[in-house]
Design goal:
Blueprint: E1 4-8, E2 15-19, E3 32-39, H1 46-61, E4 70-77, E5 81-85, H2 93-101, H3 112-119, E6 134-141, H4 150-158, E7 161-168, H5 173-180, E8 186-189, H6 195-205, E9 219-226, H7 233-248, E10 257-264, E11 268-272, H8 280-288, H9 299-306, E12 324-330, H10 341-349, E13 352-359, H11 364-371, E14 378-381, H12 384-387, H13 391-401
Parallel strand pairs: 3-4, 3-6, 6-7, 7-8, 9-10, 9-12, 12-13, 13-14
Antiparallel strand pairs: 1-2, 4-5, 10-11
Length: about 425
């Protein structure tokens, strides 16, 4: 399978996502300032220090570097701070990579708060910064700060600098949140090897939000939700939160994005159709009221059942070339596993794009069958807590899939 196995951390360091490699291409037109602030204390082994250097070089390689594009600077810290190069010193990837290669580890303690205060000045015009553009600081640390980080970080964010906090090994997650000010800008990794899995995701995160596709504007989306007996109440609640998050990332309306929900176990049942609700709040409320049906996992039967609910009489807009998407959420092996190919093919032949979302015991081969072996539409997380934040990754693919001008039968993605 051509998918890239990628680890998304945040508060959930154990989820593995299958993400289309086309999403991992360099972003377009993203002028801004990026400073790396890396922990160079004595607790970091030499091979780990090298992996941080490799991480920085990889993120730079995936960015658009140039005089009028992205500027990058690097500072390292322990109980002292050492600027390696500022934002306007180099304008080529090769020069930056060479400078990073020549860095030497400092050793000593971990005064992260002092380092954040010190690095602030390098975002100023006098030191090569461009405050009129997007400015970002990426802090990478492996342990607990020995000083206070909350106020220095808040002061820097007040200047308009966005802070990303990457914690490795024994990093203090409370401090990481204090540094970033937002859980969606916190990444925690189990070890320094895992940094490599994070490279492409961070590069994508750094894309310009004004030019990036952020919200699905127009689509027909039906959630086909496994409600079999293996799904406990808490797991079902996680599925509801995931769906609500997906809805919140779209523009809902009669002429915009429409949603429907089908619950299935032994049999499938449409709870509401694409033309039932016209507001985001109505859809969110209806999802909150869902009840799990329990029973076996007849996914093939449910796929066949769902086809008619994309028809015009149920609110489908295929005739208007509105993209149509079936989002299958399942946690296990299909009871009718030999009956997946035909209904999946029929749906796709009708121009319906199938997103396969598997949790815990889901069979990845079956997920691929449903999506038509399109790796950009296959997602897997190994626990239900992780499902609740998966929407961030799916939203990006979904948004690109449904950009204006794409017909429901031509759903190739653009890189963003």
């Amino acid at each position: 399978m051509a998918a890239v196995a990628q680890r998304q951390s945040g508060w959930l360091p154990h989820q593995e996502l299958l993400v289309d490699p086309r999403l991992l291409l360099p972003c377009k037109d993203i002028p801004g300032d990026l400073l790396f602030l890396i922990d160079s204390s004595g607790s970091i082994y030499p091979n780990e220090y090298q992996k941080m250097k490799d991480f920085m070089k990889s993120v730079i390689s995936k960015s658009v570097i140039g005089k009028d594009e992205v500027h990058v600077g690097v500072m390292q810290f322990s109980d002292v701070q050492q600027l390696e190069f500022n934002l306007n010193q180099y304008s080529s990837k090769d020069a930056m990579s060479n400078a990073i290669d020549n860095m030497l580890q400092i050793g000593g303690g971990t005064d992260t708060g002092k380092a954040i205060t010190q690095v602030s000045q390098y975002f100023d015009v006098g030191n090569g910064g461009r405050p009129n553009l997007r400015q970002r600081l990426m802090v990478i640390t492996d342990g607990e700060a020995q000083d206070e980080v909350k106020h220095p970080a808040a002061a820097l964010r007040a200047k308009g600098v966005t802070i990303y906090a990457i914690g490795v090994k024994d990093a203090n997650t409370t401090q990481l949140l204090e540094i970033s000010g937002s859980p969606d800008k916190v990444y925690t990794e189990r070890d320094f090897d895992a940094l490599k899995d994070l490279e492409s995701q961070v590069a994508l995160e750094l894309c310009d939000p004004e030019r990036d596709c952020k919200k699905t504007e127009k689509a027909d989306i039906i959630f086909l939700v496994d409600g079999s007996t293996s799904i406990t109440l808490s797991k079902f609640r996680s599925m509801q939160k995931f769906m609500q998050s997906m809805v919140n990332q779209t523009t809902v309306g009669k002429d915009l994005t429409r949603f429907g929900v089908i619950l299935y176990s032994t049999n499938a049942n449409s709870i509401f159709s694409l033309n039932t609700y016209n507001s985001k709040q109505e859809v969110v409320n209806a999802i909150s009221a869902l009840k799990s049906p329990f029973g076996d996992t007849y996914t093939g039967r449910a796929l066949a059942y769902s086809l008619e609910y994309f028809n015009e009489n149920h609110g489908g807009r295929a005739a208007l070339q509105v993209p149509q998407i079936l989002m299958v959420i399942t946690d296990g092996d299909a009871t009718d596993r030999n009956n997946l190919v035909v209904p999946s093919s029929v749906l796709r032949d009708k121009g319906i794009s199938i997103f396969s979302i598997g949790v815990e015991g889901a069979n990845k081969t079956q997920l691929e069958i449903m999506s038509g072996h399109d790796s950009s539409k296959v997602f897997y997380v190994d626990n239900f807590d992780a499902l609740e934040t998966l929407y961030k990754n799916i939203t990006q693919v979904l948004c690109n899939t449904t950009k204006p001008g794409k017909s429901s039968k031509s759903l190739n993605m653009d890189d963003s």
